[in-house]
Amino acid sequence: MPESEVIRRLLRAETGLFLPVANVDRPAIEGLQEQLRKVGGNLNQAVRAMNAGRVGYEPALAKSLAALLGMMQPMNKRLAAMARPARARRSPDQ
User: Which DSSP string do the residues of 21-38 spell out, in sequence order?
Assistant: First the structure.
């Protein structure tokens, strides 16, 4: 691995940026995003049912659902950042 790549990876790790994932791993990460999206949809439906009065309102359950939804959005953003293809590197003459 070239020295510049080692430095780039160290800088990314230090700043909290993800290393680009291999193309072979990207479909697995995208699959996790899809599953997370489905779970989020189910949680939203549960919250809507409670708010509409179709289901008895349980304060503890409402608090737990809100906490779960709050955790899922950052996780989904992290997965999206991991699955994002690396930018094409410019050649030195550009």
Answer: PPTTTHHHHHHHHHHHHH
